[in-house]
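Onboarding guide, step 5: your first structure request.
Type a short instruction followed by the sequence, for example:

Predict the 3D structure of this protein.
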Amino acid sequence: METGKTGKYLKYAIGEIILVVIGILIALQINNWNETRKDRIQEKKFLIRFEAEITTNIENINYSIMLNKSRMKRAEFLMKTIDSSQLAENSASYFIRSIEHAGYTFYPVISDNTFQEIKSSGKLSLISNVNIRSALQRYYSFWSSELGQYNFLREDTQLRYNHEKEGILSPRQQISMGSLVDSVLYNQNDGKQVFERMINKPGYLAMLPNIIRNQIETGESLENIKKMAIELRLMIQKELKNKGSNFSEKLDTTLWNLGKQANQSSLKLRQAGCLNTLSAKWCRCPIRDIISVAKNRKINQRAFRYAI
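The system replies with structure tokens like these:
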């Protein structure tokens, strides 16, 4: 008699222990899921910031391409006036302003704040899509190398251009060029005088082909990085769209699987005669009831709180 009771109590004890273990395993799984969920939320925030930052960069690149094309046209126009003083006189205002502006190459301000932040904090691995992670590294490293490679040449060319054009424009004309809203109109006589000073500056005339070449190289470089930026932005937009549609579905699937596993385990224990009346509720309860029972047993309450 006593032996039978002891065996029965032992079964119940084993059943309770197994239930506690199941609860702990479920709590750990929910904990792991919650940590993954927080990483995905942070990843999404970074992707949104990357998308906005790259969009701004593309706008700045387009503006730079437009300005540099305009300045290259000015340099080409100056080359044409070498063989035609009449062209310089008939378009005196454009001719004179071209001498001032043709030698400058405009490079856009590219923001990399988000990339530097995620890189320095060691969180680049949060970007779960390996292709996007690699594309981000290529994009920002390409920009850094391009900027470093051409920055010195660009500055050197502009300094030499400024030196060679000294004395071509009159003091009054140089002062007027300092205004961002320069509205001075120049006549044919102004154009003729400036042309005569320009044609007597062989060093300046020799600079013009270099200016055009520099603008072409800069334009090609900007077009390349613009293409990379557009492709990267498209990848990020697709990833954001996928994450937005899959998040709720993954959450429901995770909770359903947890409940299913717990119910199956408790059913097997009941069939084996290892559950008492209190434990039998595991056989028919959904995941919320499982969480409630686990809370009563004080099993990792913090982990279960996230799943409610």
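Each response can be followed by summary notes, for example: The chain has a mean pLDDT of 78.
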